[in-house]
Amino acid sequence: MTSPLFLGIDTGGTYTDAVLYSETEGVVASAKSLTTRHDLAIGVSGAVETVLSEISGAVKRIRLVSLSTTLATNALVEGQGGRAGLVMIGFGPKDLARDGLAEALGTDPVIYLTGGHNVHGNETPLDLAPLEAQLDNLSREVSAVAIAGYFAVRNPAHEIAVRDLIRERTFLPVTCSHDLSSRLGGPRRALTTLLNARLISMVARLIDATSGYLSSRSIDAPLMVVRGDGALISASEALMRPIETILSGPAASLVGARHLTGLDNAVVSDIGGTTTDVAVLDGGMPRIDTEGATVGRYRTMVEAVAMHTFGLGGDSEVRLDEGGFEAGLTLGPRRLMPLSLAAHLWPKPVLAGLEKQAQSSYSGRFDGRFALRTGLPDALAAGLTAQEAVLYERITLEPQTLDVVLTGTSQRATLDRLVARGLVLIAGFTPSDAMHVLGRQDQWNLEAARLGAEIFCRRKAGSGRIVAQSPAELAGMVSARLTRQSAEAVLTALIADDDIAGIDVSKSTFIDRALSRTPGLVRFSLKPDRPLVALGASAPVHYPAIADMLDIESFVPVHAGVANAVGAVVGQVRETVTVFVSEPDEGRYAVNGGGEHQIFRDRGAAFARARELARSEARQAATRSGADHPGVELIEHIDMPVIEGLEKFIEARFVAVASGRPRIAGK
Question: What is the pTM of this model?
Fold first, then answer.
């Protein structure tokens, strides 16, 4: 009897990976296809069709499909996402100044409502009138709405009332903060909810594209999505809580690294097109950031792997430090489409534009850069200013040189805003192009990479000298810079995880001398305490030099390029529910959590209900997330100190964790 197959898919910024996995044989087939942002189904089908063609009768044997993605992570790192409205219940304008909420909100609309609850779940009356007055305008300005209520984790009634009103009057997706976190800290919970709303359309497009493709191929199997802590959730749950898929790809890579290498203790560094993600395996398990994942500039309330994400990858923007006397390069954090890839997809306009600029007797300010639409649906362009709309109309689905797109220098800021919205993509010289020039990669257009390097070489440092004498010299500089920044990223992550404060790796003289092997009367050296596992399609190209700089043993697994997709199919479903018991008045015990607010006169009865509710809600949550007969573990934290010989009850927390393997088709 042939064994069942599990299909793992990982959609990254540049590539979509697919693997077919058998519990008896391991990885039996793997493939890559370019991620097609305008229609994600094309990239998904390209990768999956290739692996299906390698195994006879594979379609009928597939029992589970699991999806991981870096799209949400990349969007937050690059400051992208749809326009979202924020409804704050019981908060005021001053609360926007906390936890980076104002920065994240930007120019998106916010509505303040009177209401909310206290720590025991008791309410201040809710006034819906300001929201009712603005709903019509809101539905035209945003693509989703986030709702955050004061102490909503103790009593979600007001968030639910606002949610129901918005759903009744509009077709907008709505996210409530109590659905995402049970932790206190209103502004950061509001930030998490806002970012969730921003990501809804992006993750929905990916899930819809994947579901549509699976249906077209008659693959009737549950579709799961990897969460940021490495656990699996059903696609329907991921659609409601897309914020939980931040660090989905990196979390899957950690699970995959452990599975592929068998190493219990390692530093795992995954280089993609947009980011490099660094994390630590301890005792075979990834470290979890219980304080909330930090991605880009934002610390969320999403419990995820303790991953350090850096805007550094094969598609990172190569920037010249123009203020320096000598030519210095910096990579990232913004992602560009590599010129070699742009010319691979659109050879005529890209090569013609580059050749014209290379032959010109003078260098233009925008030389070597192109702009093109990402092809997102027009609905996601809601809320553009007049200037943004005019420029957006001028940009086409084919690359155009920036000197054609921009009629003035002032429009550069407008273009940057369109890029931040994810509506426009810039093509330019990247490390992937440099690798083509050096002959270390060859999958795209070499001539475009060489022309891009030639154009970049002509730029001048503060000394007046050109950056490099040849494309090969420039490519070598970019490669060296990627090695150095990658080594600094690994050290930054390890120093942070070791709780060592006060060291800026990029500015430390001691670390510089250690990494560069600078001779002197005092020689500095450093060495991580565990081996380095390098993942990503370009890991074999870059990481031998990075490991050498760090003086560390390194492993590049056979399936390093598809480790995320491997991790996607070997994980488990896991859901956690916390129920609180407090004493608002003597002899009255409030049970809050799991969407309930109840009052008991007896502490024992309150505890019993809290235990029952936590177990029940966790089991139901795991079942909704696709677990097959989940088991439940209950952890109790009762804060009841003895003061002057008497017990004083402060609070009790009952944490239920339900987990199990996902249901598979045919069971």
Answer: 0.72
